[in-house]
Amino acid sequence: MKDFGLLLGIALVGAALIVGLLLGSSDRPPVLAPDFTLENLDGEAVTLSSYLGQVVIIDFWATWCKPCLTSFPALHELVVQHEEEGVVLLVVSIDKSLRKPRNYLIEQGYPTANVLWGSLDEARAVKDLYGVVGIPQTFIIDREGYIQFKGHPTRITAEDLAAYL
Fold it and tell me: Which ranges in 45-132 belong to alpha helices (H)?
């Protein structure tokens, strides 16, 4: 049991270091966003690096998360307002199956091609890659592929986004 505690401690310290790197600081240059590929809810492979040259907003989200459902409409609308300027929204679903997010998005009139899942294990692996410990969690990745923002989606304003356009 002591070994488990030690391993857990090491894992937590490692996760904290990754989160620290992803968050960056004002005196540290931005970190390159880790690349990944996940299938979208339509079964097509989507790779983050294929969006180089565009501003990508990645939102980690799930249908069982009330704050996610509350913040999603405003985030989606912000992206729609800036689509012509090269802003893309990728939503990584942490749902247990693709049925719930797919049904929810269709019922609410949202597209499904930008919602990524693949499998719960694959989605969790991307969540872990980005150091996400709670959702909703949103990232802004600039046109060169660097993380410029990590935080709650309600903290992103049109003015914040304009800095990367």
Answer: 66-81, 99-108, 120-129
